[in-house]
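Inputs:
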Amino acid sequence: MLNAAYDAFAERLAQAVPGLWIGAPEPRYLEEPRGRWFGQGGLLVKPADTAQVSAVLRACNEARVGVVPYGGGTGLVSGQIAPDGPLPVILSLEKMAALRKIDSHAMQVEAGATLQQVRDWAEEAGRRFPLGLASQGSAQIGGCLATNAGGVNVLRYGNARALCLGLEVVLADGTIWGGLKALRKDNTGYDLRDLMIGAEGSLGVITAASLRLFEPPAVEGTALFAVPSPKAAVALLELAQRQLAGCVSAFELIAGQGLAFLREVGPEVQMPFAQDPDWCVLIELGLPAGMDAEEAFGALYEAAEELVLDAVVAQSEAQRSALWELRESLPLANRRIGAISSHDISVPVSAIPAFIDAAQGRLTAMGDFRINCFGHVGDGNLHFNVFPAMGRQRDDYVALRDAVKRAVHDLVVQGFDGSVSAEHGVGRLKVEDLERYEAPTKLAMMRAIKDALDPNGVLNPGAVLRPQG
Amino acid sequence: MLNAAYDAFAERLAQAVPGLWIGAPEPRYLEEPRGRWFGQGGLLVKPADTAQVSAVLRACNEARVGVVPYGGGTGLVSGQIAPDGPLPVILSLEKMAALRKIDSHAMQVEAGATLQQVRDWAEEAGRRFPLGLASQGSAQIGGCLATNAGGVNVLRYGNARALCLGLEVVLADGTIWGGLKALRKDNTGYDLRDLMIGAEGSLGVITAASLRLFEPPAVEGTALFAVPSPKAAVALLELAQRQLAGCVSAFELIAGQGLAFLREVGPEVQMPFAQDPDWCVLIELGLPAGMDAEEAFGALYEAAEELVLDAVVAQSEAQRSALWELRESLPLANRRIGAISSHDISVPVSAIPAFIDAAQGRLTAMGDFRINCFGHVGDGNLHFNVFPAMGRQRDDYVALRDAVKRAVHDLVVQGFDGSVSAEHGVGRLKVEDLERYEAPTKLAMMRAIKDALDPNGVLNPGAVLRPQG
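Outputs:
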């Protein structure tokens, strides 16, 4: 059982870690983007370097006080917010935001740097760090790695995990693991890096990372293709891969419902088609020198025949930005409408059309909803979000909410061998889902590893796994 | 302390696992490719399915008998051979070699299928499984995953780890973890898949895998470029990435010394240049439809200016095969010459030229050697192998062998922050190296995980980590 971080512990911490920033958390450390969870007051610390993180964890571990690591606060599953349990220490990495070094193949950055800053550093060096999220202006790279963030370029470059070469991690007892080697191939023992990535701060606190850098493609282009159905979208993806294997950087599904939401509640964005199509896909290509993006899109359009109804190819950087703005505005419109239940799910790519059909069918039988289903179809990852019917309120559906979530998740797992947590993580929101849907063997292995690396359970208590004792 | 698998245990196993193939191992199960290690007799079992693997492990765990998982036997670090300790059970996966299912995005295969068979299944489905090794005709996919094998296409497609979507694993106590979901994005808890990949059978026995499939590039081409130096090779790689980001499938360094070995001892292969260059790089491109491989190589050649001395572009499938045969014959020539010490190392890609210079300098100061340094320069991974001077024998160097290895490894780790086990794994050959070069924190984490998942230490005892007690 953990102890609460009351005043006496704050004094002890101040003595144990000279120079440490200690204070009470402002409200922003206790809220999360969707406003569904509120954290407890606790104690906020902002270590200035890895040694201070180490000293904080050592003190917390000795005193059996929980530690909630805090990055940019953009997580959607409450991994950064502890609403109950003994008062924890909130450990914000914001003061550790330096670029330690960079060359043409890799960069070493501290965990508190925002994703946008990391991308900018890469760009200044003539390279690219291809992790891209709508929240990249606030999200910190440490949090992106702790949650194995996904985003819009996973199709080409992989999740955060695939972009990370090495980590510096502080363990529960304060020990520092300096695993920052920037190697593409390194088979010296167990893959501790990937164990830490996606563990959401429950096995260690990531303080720095070595990241892969890429050469930006010589030629890039963006287009929006209107398609008759999700089935056509998946077939179009296969066609694009056949013509342009490895050069499709993004392939994002957008539902007509999403466009309707934008028209209804904003934000105001440029609408690409006179009449909103039922479905469209935003495609980004990154091509070799000597190719022409417009010609490549043209060849795809011709070969696609009845898979495509209409297409807009960006002719300028402004047009390209406008298409991306449309895509990136969907989550804000969703929040303004107010979802009954949101689902960050994945299924095998080829099962996407059948899943959408089946899920719509199940929900139609349950009530009157609007469904905005969009996302990273190239990764088999959809944000399948369920909203009130036109003119009705989210509150009208309180009684149905759990049943909606259960129906969607049951279908994902039992019908399509999919995942109920594709790219947003487990946090505290999905601990029960994990217990419901994952094999007991997997949960037992996770528990054994947690107990082995954090025997007192001080690291992000209640996230990913239910707290013990 | 483990018990030996004597006759009484064989009887017990036969009773516990009806129908199990049990016998004495033929010599081929006790040898390894370089002939440096010999295993003990032990007991050989060949389970027919996952349930039998489970029953074998349960019985071994209860009786505290060690289990050495056995794939194709092509490993170079003795992960599949136990030369000492109590007599273990050798568990061969060879009877579990089925294709369970395949669609356009993924395939599910059993661990005992050879890599060549897996590649063939993919090709029959019009797809590609891009893991490629010289030993792929014998190496089994389970072993490739257990060792996180690398090979010639890592630059484009990643190591075995990056090509695996899910695993079925039998744990030490016989529990089966069915983690075969074929998802590109799945953040439901700790990354147990990547923990098992590269653990070399010391945390569980991989019995099946879900693998990623790729669309073969529309256009492919192969060329050999003669370059003046490793520095020019790395600069040429950067140039190729700038022109053709994402489309460089392989970029392999070949030393003039390697060509000289082929001329000296064979095997006889077609030599591409009239006069052997000091260095050359084998480049494979996979391009979008509409591009021409010869033109792409031509543009690269022109832009490269003084980075390239000469070039041969394959004009036919036969010429392409001949270039690859040259590359794939290097290890055999090396074995015929007989290395004093071989080093599977990696350093940051940009440090490759400085490492080669420094390593040659250190060795020149130690004695009279020939060095054949070749490999996957695009991944920062070199096989830096040290041979006797012309006319001398390996036996003349016995006294120097440990010092040579130590000098190379010290330089890799201390001088270049590199790895002494890039793609071949740790096995039993490099357990001491791990203890010497890896941080105590990392070793302690590995030990904690091993103890948590295999508390009796029955899984591949002595591999990766020294046996306890």
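Remarks. The two ends of chain B are 6 Å apart (CA to CA). Residues 99-212 of chain B form a domain with the Uridine Diphospho-n-acetylenolpyruvylglucosamine Reductase; domain 3 fold (CATH 3.30.465.10).
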